[in-house]
Amino acid sequence: MRTPIAYFLLLAGVLFALGIVGVLVNRNALRIFMSVELQLNAVNLTLVAFARLRNDLGGQVLAFFSMVVAAAEVVVGLAIIVSIYRRRRSVDVDEVRELRW
Amino acid sequence: MVGHTAGALWVIPALPLAVSVVNLFVGKRLGRWSGIIATVAVAASFAVAVAVVLDLVSAPAEQRLEVQHLFDWIVSGGFAVGADLQLDALSATMILVITGVGSLIHLYAIGYMAQDPRRGRFFAYLNLFVFFMLMLVLAGNYLLLYLGWEGVGLCSYLLIGFWFDRVENAEAAKKAFITTRIGDTLMLVGLAVLVFRFGTLNFETIFGSAGSVLTRDAATVISLLLLAGAIGKSAQIPLHVWLPDAMAGPTPVSALIHAATMVTAGVYLVIRSHVLFELSGTALTVVLVIGVMTTLFAATCALAQYDIKRVLAYSTVSQLGYMFMAVGMRAYGVAMFFLVAHACYKALLFLGAGSVIHGMHDDQDLRRMGGLRRAMPITFVTMTIAALSQAGIPVLAGFYAKDALLEVAQRTDRTAVYVLGTVAAFLTALYLGRMLFLTFFGAARSDAAEHAHESPAIMWIPLAVLAVGAVGAGLAIQTSPEGTLSAFLEPVVGAVPLGEGMALAALITIAVIVAVAALALAWLVYGSGRVDPFALRERLEPMATAAERGWYVDRAYDVAIVQPLKAFARLTGDVVDTRIIDGAVNGVGGIVKRVAAGGRLVQTGAVRTYALVLFAGVVVVLGFIGVRA
User: Fold this and answer.
1) B contacts of A98 (beta carbons < 8 Å)
2) Are B66 and B109 in contact (CB under 8 A)?
3) Which of B187, B384, B462, B592 has the fewest beta carbons under 10 Å from its own?
4) Do residue B611 and residue A24 have CB atoms under 8 angstroms apart?
5) Which residues are CB-neighbours of B121 under 8 A, at least 6 positions away?
């Protein structure tokens, strides 16, 4: 017997909520980053679960795309975080407020 | 008409135009040759004009019309205007005056402008003027006439302001241009009405079908609009104010443009459009009234001027008033002879005045002249002839012109016109006598007058030729209202209306007594030495100064029109434009700026705030979708 779709969605929802909370409460850029990854993975899990339910590979393909794009984004994001760290010896996002009015 | 000169019509205006272009571009390098080629061009035009007119005269009277279609000028749907030249008795008379008197004045100008470094430019303008004037009178439709009309206005402006380094000259040029523009604008409206009514501007079509197309009122409206243009160009009341100031130009310009030719364009226009004016009737009465008013008004002004050229300017305005009077009485032949005679004696008076000014080293004030007849005998004799001619001494040209006019007035039962015309004739002889005695008689009243010298031959030869015209024009072409010229013009403009009235001998006797009495009075006051004219003038104040200032018409226009317009311009410029229109534009910009200044504070730069707002936004959107579903 197959695992019901509800379990997958429940897990994805919990992961996504954890991600949101992580983004909102952390000040360390790296941890915010990891929380964003958590949200992404929650969405990927939903995609794959529905692909299995509908016997449609399209969902899995989309999950792959999402992972690839996330990887590329991580590269850029980490590079920015590294350069911020080199300048300020800190990755606290509340201190980095140059891009305002 | 097909003669052996058919097709040569275009040469007449083309010659001065071509030389004008040459002088415009290389006149500076031509030196004194610029004046010579300009004079030759106009003289050649005169020769061609004589040949063409002789050809015209050789044809039977009813076939005296030559039309030359040069090219299609404007073709727009059913409306077409061609560059058509048209020669009939009326334009033939005009082109002979323009090129004949014009070439004499050009010759004179060679001497008069000899010292001017910009004479190449001067002759370019002068030739251009001749071209436009010829186009004006040769035009076969109203639009081509209007082209010439505006062209001569432009040349008038350029030549009045020829010595533009003096502010008064530039101001006078502007005044002449703008004042005539008032009339020209109304005239253009008149042309628009003509297009609206007839669908064409061709003289032949319009005059041929006017009776069936136009109602009396429509004809009145069109005639009065055209008349407005004529009033501006011919310096009639109420647009006469520009001509006295136009004397700022070089004297040959005053002689050619502001005495002999351009200012008579208004007379020509009314005669050319006589079909419309007669259809209206009212319009002719207006012409007559304006003519009488202007004649008397300007004659009083001329009496009080001290600038010799301003005397002649007001005299010209007054004489143009006489021509309008003749036109207003349908005596077109009389008006045209008046025009021809006036072109001779007034051009001569101006050129003589120029000669005096030349001899006086550019002093134009009658108060500093006196006794010049010994130093300048030729100028003295020729100017005296011209003045006597204009004053109406028998057998001279001016006598026949004025006498014919007064005869028509008397014999068509216009007693008021006759009396007022005679009064004006008295004033005319009086101011001319005053000018002559102050200039040439008595003792010299300044060093310049004592050391004055006669002008060179190139300047007095034209004087002598014009003097022949001023003497003999009447005997040659018109000795009565129904003389040779009137008969020549009759197929075009109709016969001069004449009824019964006083005997001719009585009319002549009255006219001669009036002229001689006026000259005698002038001699008594200004020539006999028994009266001090300057003390007499003191006793006539403030009338004398008022007349000298043209009865303060300029000041009245300034107060009534110019200043209110300037105030209105300041209102629209400084208040409406800068405050209201600019204020609205700047206000909108200011509001956007202030909103943006507040709005950009939303961008805090705090990443977590953005994240929170983003999350809240997603929740709101999802919540909204959930509620809708």
Assistant:
1) 605
2) no
3) B592
4) yes
5) B23, B24, B27, B28, B162
Q: Which value does ipTM take for this structure?
A: 0.84
Collect all residues of chain B within an 8 Å Cβ-Cβ radius of residue A38: none
- What is the rounded CA–CA span in Å between residue B403 and residue B425? 10
CA–CA dist B474, B344 (Å, integer): 11
Q: pTM for the complete prediction? A: 0.81
Query: Is residue B595 pLDDT above 60, yes or no?
Result: yes
Identity of the residue in A24, A27, A100 whose CB atom sits nearest the CB atom of B605? A100
Q: ω before B394 within 30° of 0 (cis)?
A: no
**A chain contacts of residue B606, beta-carbon cutoff 8 Å:** 93-94, 97, 100
- Is 80 exceeded by the pLDDT of residue B4? no
Q: In which residue are the tokens 């008021």 written?
A: B416
Query: What residues of B are in contact with residue A99 (Cβ under 8 Å)?
Result: 603, 605
Determine the residue of chain A that is closest to B600 in CA distance: A101
Q: Could you tell me the two tokens for B75?
A: 């073709």
pLDDT tens digits, B525-556: 888 878 888 888 888 888 888 888 888 988 99
Residues with Cβ < 8 Å from B340, sequence gap 6 or more? Answer: B93, B97, B397, B473, B477, B485
Instruction: Give the pair of three-digit tokens for residue B92.
Output: 């033939």
CA atoms of B42 and B396, how far apart (whole Å): 27
> Three-state DSSP class for B274?
helix
The CA distance from B271 to B219, in Å, is 15
Task: Give the DSSP letter string of B492-525.
Answer: HH-PPP----S-HHHHHHHHHHHHHHHHHHHIII
Residue of A nearest to B609 (CA): A24
The yes-or-no verdict on residue B176 having pLDDT over 60 is yes
Residue B443 corresponds to which tokens in the numbers above?
């003792």
Query: To which H or E segment does residue B73 belong?
Result: strand B66-76
Cβ–Cβ under 8 Å, residues B206 and B198: yes
CB B323, CB B342: distance < 8 Å: yes
Q: How far away is chain A from the Cα of B589, in angstroms, using its nearest Cα?
A: 20
Sign of the Cα torsion B19, B20, B21, B27 reads positive
Inter-helix orientation angle B282-303/B415-440, to 10°: 30
pLDDT at B1: 44
Instruction: Round to whole Å and give the CA distance between B393 and B474.
Output: 12
Structure tokens at A57: 């590979």
Q: What is the pLDDT of residues B249-280, one digit of tens each?
A: 899 999 999 888 999 999 999 999 999 999 99
Q: Can you say how many angstroms the Cα of residue B158 is from the centroid of all Cα atoms in its chain? A: 14
Contact B131, B20 (CB under 8 A): yes
How far B587 CA lies from chain A's nearest CA (Å)?
Answer: 24
Beta bridge partners of B74: B81
Q: Which pLDDT does position B449 carry in this prediction? A: 83
The whole-angstrom distance between B625's CA and the closest CA on chain A is 19
User: What does the alpha-carbon distance between residue B216 and residue B610 come to, in Å, rounded to a whole number?
Assistant: 84
The dihedral through the CA atoms of B7, B8, B12, B13 has a sign that is positive
Distance CA B583, CA A29 (A): 50
